[in-house]
Amino acid sequence: MAASTSKSMDEDIRESRDLSRIPETYRLMHQEEDKDMLDDHLLHTKRLGDYINHHRYRHLCTALKLIVLCLAGWGVFNLWEFWPGSNQPPNSHTGHDHAATPDEYICDCGSSTKEAVSLGCQFVPMAAAWLPPACIDEELSHEFNTAGPGINGEWTYWADRDHLHEISEKDVSLLADTGELFYGTWEWHVKHCTFQWRLDYRRRWLNTTLEPRYDHESHITHCQMIIFADRTKSTASNVKLNSSSHMPPHGHEMHGKRWSAVSEPIIHLID
């Protein structure tokens, strides 16, 4: 009896030991499952990261291609802008007559101030000319008209070189009918030059036409001479009705007398 009881107790102990191993086995199984899940998650994360990086790379390549194309286009545009002959103004060549195209007369206003008004032209002091809207930078013109030494920025004009007979801006505009000169200060003439240069720069974005008579190196040379001239001297100009033609400012025939910036240091004419 005692032996039987002892055997039963041994079996219970062994069974108890086997049962005690179950939690450990269960834990190991879950660890293995967790490891598999972690591996799957890491693999998924890696694939997702590769996918994102791949698309980022594609987008970056696309952006770089667009930048290169834009830069190439800008380069081609600039080459065209500054290519010799691509932007030659009308009548800029010398020694050859040619058939005029309609655009060559874009800054012309007829043969009289009355005709100029009927054509919708207006007098622009900055240019000393009657001009159609296509050849006027309204903002720059207004700035010039208020950049003088007067109380409201107006400029003073005279009918003589000694500045004894003052005339109004309207009187100046009507001189286009007679071809007579008007006289101004050295400062007025310098401002005329610098404002015309600004117009040459601004016209690229404002779609304004620069008068062909100013779209030439000879006018820059003329202005250079004015800038370094004696500022106490008087300057004289004539008023134009047609600004589409160019005449180099080497000398001018006015009322039987030839005026030249070289031979006559007091008089400087705008071409």
Structure in a nutshell:
With 271 residues, this protein is mainly α. It has helices spanning 2-82, 113-118, 138-145, 169-174, 186-206, 217-227, and strands at residues 122-124, 129-131, 157-158, 166-167, 181-184, 235-238, 252-254, 257-259.
Structure description:
With 271 residues, the chain is mainly alpha-helical. It has 2 domains: 1-85; 103-259, no CATH class. 49% of the residues lie in helices and 9% in strands. The protein has 6 helices and 8 strands. The chain has helices at 2-82, 113-118, 138-145, 169-174, 186-206, 217-227; strands at 122-124, 129-131, 157-158, 166-167, 181-184, 235-238, 252-254, 257-259. The strands form 4 sheets. It has a two-stranded antiparallel ribbon with strand order 1-2. It starts with a helix and ends in a 12-residue tail after the last strand. InterPro entries: Phomopsin_biosynth_assoc.
SSE order and pairing:
Blueprint: H1 2-82, H2 113-118, E1 122-124, E2 129-131, H3 138-145, E3 157-158, E4 166-167, H4 169-174, E5 181-184, H5 186-206, H6 217-227, E6 235-238, E7 252-254, E8 257-259
Antiparallel strand pairs: 1-2, 3-4, 5-6, 7-8
Helix pairs in contact: 5-6
Tell me the number of helical segments per DSSP (H or I, 4 or more residues long). Answer: 6
Total strand count, please? 8
Total individual domains: 2
Residue share in helix: 40-55%
Largest sheet: 2 strands, antiparallel
> What's the mean pLDDT score?
72
Spell out the key features of this protein:
single chain; 271 residues; mainly alpha; 2 domains; two-stranded antiparallel ribbon; 49% helix; disordered C terminus
